[in-house]
Amino acid sequence: MTAIQMHEVSQPYIRRRAIRHMEKGRVVILAAGTGNPYFTTDTAAALRALELQVDILLMAKNRVDGIYSEDPRFSSDARRYVQVSHQEAIERDLKVMDAAALALLRENNLPILVFNMSAYGAIENAVTGAAPVGTMVTSGAAVLE
What we know:
Blueprint: H1 15-23, H2 41-51, E1 57-61, E2 67-68, E3 80-85, H3 86-91, H4 99-107, E4 112-116, H5 122-128, E5 135-138, E6 143-144
Parallel strand pairs: 1-4, 3-5
Antiparallel strand pairs: 2-3, 3-6, 4-5
Helix pairs in contact: 2-4
């Protein structure tokens, strides 16, 4: 579903319709932001997750399997967080998502799972919780790998 009209590609985002899909056990994928200026796709994801009262926001990334203490491309000392708090992610500028989105999720105590969508089975593991993947962002304290 999307807030930007693309009828050939996606249904328009209508909150009640999205909830009805979820009640029927369907997976709802939201794409292309809100269609409003100054709102990033991160902020749109946070906003929609809260509107739809989901249990967790899954944040699939390319080529990175979670949140690191430093950029692993440039630092061999970088360590992956198993868990980090919303507040720590904001204070340490860990580049999870933009600060407005993180603050919105922190204020509403909604966890985020950041994982590598390219890894074999990662999406299934993220959805089912069958195997630990990525970094969990919660209101709890940080845990490094």
